């Protein structure tokens, strides 16, 4: 009888350990049921990463306009005017040729003699 009692206790302990691991396999922190939430989090993070990559590409494209030797003066002037509040959102900036700008400024500085 003592032998059967020992088998019952070991069977009971083995069953308990088996149930413990089975429960944690399904509902544990890294179990099968939490796998779905990990997949959703991974998808969300991948979408966020894609958005950040697009934002980085856009910033790199804007930065390329400011590189030495390749500066787009019209773009810089437009950005400066808009940031300083000298141009409205509906204003159209038209660059003037250098000769017309110089001739216009010298003509306006001359005053007629009476």
Protein architecture, described:
The protein is an all-alpha fold and about 110 residues long. About 70% of the residues lie in helices and about 0% in strands. It contains 4 helices and no strands. The model has no long low-confidence stretch (mean pLDDT about 75).
Q: Element order, helices and strands?
A: HHHH
Dominant shape: rod-shaped
Per DSSP, the total helix count is 4
Segments where pLDDT lies below 50 for 5+ residues? none
- β-strand percent reads under 5%
pLDDT averaged over residues: 77
Helix fraction by DSSP (H/I, runs of at least 4): over 70%
First-residue to last-residue Cα separation: 137 Å
Radius of gyration of CA atoms, rounded to a whole number: 38 Å
Main structural class? mainly alpha
Largest sheet: none
How many β-strands, per DSSP?
Answer: 0
Task: Kindly list the characteristics that best describe this protein.
0% strand, mainly alpha, 114 residues, single chain
């Amino acid at each position: 009888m003592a032998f059967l009692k020992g088998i019952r206790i070991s069977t009971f302990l083995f069953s308990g350990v088996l149930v413990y691991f089975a429960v944690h396999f399904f509902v544990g922190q890294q179990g099968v049921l939490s796998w779905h939430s990990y997949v959703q989090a991974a998808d969300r993070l991948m979408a966020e990463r894609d958005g950040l990559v697009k934002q980085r590409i856009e910033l790199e494209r804007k930065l390329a306009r400011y590189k030495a030797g390749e500066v787009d003066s019209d773009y810089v002037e437009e950005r400066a005017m808009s940031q300083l509040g000298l141009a409205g959102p509906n204003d159209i900036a038209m660059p003037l040729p250098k000769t017309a700008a110089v001739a216009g400024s010298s003509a306006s500085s001359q005053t007629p003699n009476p």
